[in-house]
Each structure stands twice: as structure tokens, then as C-alpha cells.
Amino acid sequence: QKEVEQDPGPLSVPEGAIVSLNCTYSNSAFQYFMWYRQYSRKGPELLMYTYSSGNKEDGRFTAQVDKSSKYISLFIRDSQPSDSATYLCAMSEQGGSEKLVFGKGTKLTVNP
Amino acid sequence: NAGVMQNPRHLVRRRGQEARLRCSPMKGHSHVYWYRQLPEEGLKFMVYLQKENIIDESGMPKERFSAEFPKEGPSILRIQQVVRGDSAAYFCASSPGVSTNEKLFFGSGTQLSVL
User: Hey, are the CB atoms on B42 and A98 less than 8 Å from each other?
Assistant: First the structure.
């Protein structure tokens, strides 16, 4: 079993839809959870950063962490064509900048 | 403020040659991380360096791969005697330090192709 599982998609939605992206993990020592967005031929860009369980909201983005189920989610409201990218979940045991374990990424396309 | 700069963007090598990938961290950042992204795979941690020190190289293959971050100049990821399986995108990231809220800033990567 991989440490972090993420459905690679691809996922295609119409503009304005609510998008739900998810990851599961097996290592109960993970405490820090992140979502990165990666455009084609670019490096990942940090979107959301969460410590332990709970919700965090930033504009149209909401991150949820359920440590009891080892499950994290990213919701995108009112999705835009500019949201089309690959979304990577990442997690670490210690501080946010140390060795991160990434999911494979989910490729999202938002159609105008 | 320039971001993390990686060069070259694309590197083509024949089997058995050496590949050198360079990374200049963001200004003021003293911590550098290298990750590798194989086709159809997620980003995999390789090595974490501070100036002149390797802090964690647990993700580095045991042979042919080495990394350095000298006092002056960019961080270098060196792959000797490349093989086709080394073909991947190599990303460098930097941060100002290690704390629970430090962000990692990634470069645009070097795409290595081994013929």
C-alpha cells in the first residue's frame, strides 16, 4: 500500500461547478497536510496548508482533514477555467518544509 | 524578487554521460530540497541541503547521484553515468528555514531525457 493514494483522474467539470479532490494515506504520523497546484511545465505552487484535523478556507478553496479516517479533501467552489491544472496533495510528519510525501496528482479541466 | 531558478529547463544526455542540474534558491533562502517526478508518478523527495551541509539524503539513490549546496553559488544535483530510468522532471524547492509554517517554493524544474 502506497503511503499516499490519490486518484489521477482526469477530472473534467463545467465552469462554476464545485470540485472535490481527495487523498487517503496510511501513515498515522502525518500531521501536516498540503495541497499544491501544478500547471503544465511548471513547478508546484502551495495552495492550502493545514495542521492536524479540521477545515481551512481561503477564498474559493476549502481544505478538510479527517485524521481518524486518514482522508483529506480539497473543495473548489465556482470553478474557473484558470483552475485547470494538476492538484497534488502532500503531507509530512514534522514541520511543513521538511520531507514531503506527495500523491500522484489529479488532473483537473474546467470547461468554459 | 526572482523565484527559484533552475537550469537548464531541458537536458538531453546519452546513456553513460553525466547530468548536472542547477538550482538557485530564492533570495534569503538557505534551505534547498530536490524532488524527482517520474512519468505517472508523484513527486518523490530526494535530498535536503543547507549551505555546505547535506541534512537528509534518504531519498537519494545509493549510487551515481550526489548533491551539493556550496557556500557560494547554486545547488547542484549531479547524476553520473545516466541510464534511461533517470529520465524525469527534477524539481528544486527552497525555504527560508525550518519551522512549522514555512512554505516550500518550487522552481519550474529540469526535464532530463536520457537517450
Answer: no
Mean pLDDT, range B65-84, rounded to an integer: 95
Q: Which of B4, B17, B26 lies closest to B92, judged by CA?
A: B4
Option in B40, B58, B109 nearest A43 (CB)? B109
Cα within 13 Å of Cα(B7), Cβ side: 5
- Give the CA distances from residue B7 to residues A9, A15, A43, A55, B91, in Å, rounded to whole numbers and listed in that order: 31, 36, 13, 38, 10
Q: For A104, list phi and psi in degrees, rounded to 5.
A: -75, -20
Contact B37, B97 (CB under 8 A): no
Q: To the nearest whole percent, how much of chain A has pLDDT over 70?
A: 96
Q: What are the Cα distances from residue A31, in Å, to A90, B34, B100?
A: 11, 22, 10
Q: What is the pLDDT of residue A95?
A: 64
Q: Which residues pair with A64 in a beta bridge?
A: A55, A73
* CA terminus-to-terminus distance, chain B: 36
Q: Please tell me which of the candidates B44, B101, B106 has its beta carbon nearest to residue A96.
A: B101
Pairing verdict, β B75-79 and B19-24:
antiparallel
Q: What is the pLDDT of residues A22-74, one digit of tens each?
A: 999 999 999 889 999 999 889 999 999 888 888 999 999 999 999 999 999 99
pLDDT averaged over every residue in chain B: 91
- What are A42-51's pLDDT values in tens digits? 999 999 988 8
Closest residue on chain A to B56 (Cα): A99
